[in-house]
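Bit of a strange request maybe. I'm writing a small parser for structure token strings and I need a real example to test against, not something I typed by hand. Could someone generate the tokens for this chain?
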Amino acid sequence: MALASLLILFTAAGYAVLCAVKPFAPCRKCSGTGVRTRRRTVTLCRRCHGHRSRLRIGRRLLNDSRSIHAAGTRPHTTDRKAAPWQ
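Reply from user aminoacidic:
Good idea to test on real output. This should exercise your parser:
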């Protein structure tokens, strides 16, 4: 049981390092080419918009958690002290 937990921990840590070092992965839908062929037409890939790569899921989660944390801890500019005469 401990060995399985350790293996899962190392796998998650390895994926976190991969997301930090290489945040973009090749698009799975177009195999990293940026274009899709349908019947006789060639169009840009709808998932990657022709950029050939997409943001990894782990990196997307990290970016979202950072923005949520920053929004929750940042002082608001609209919160001003009340004037002394009020």
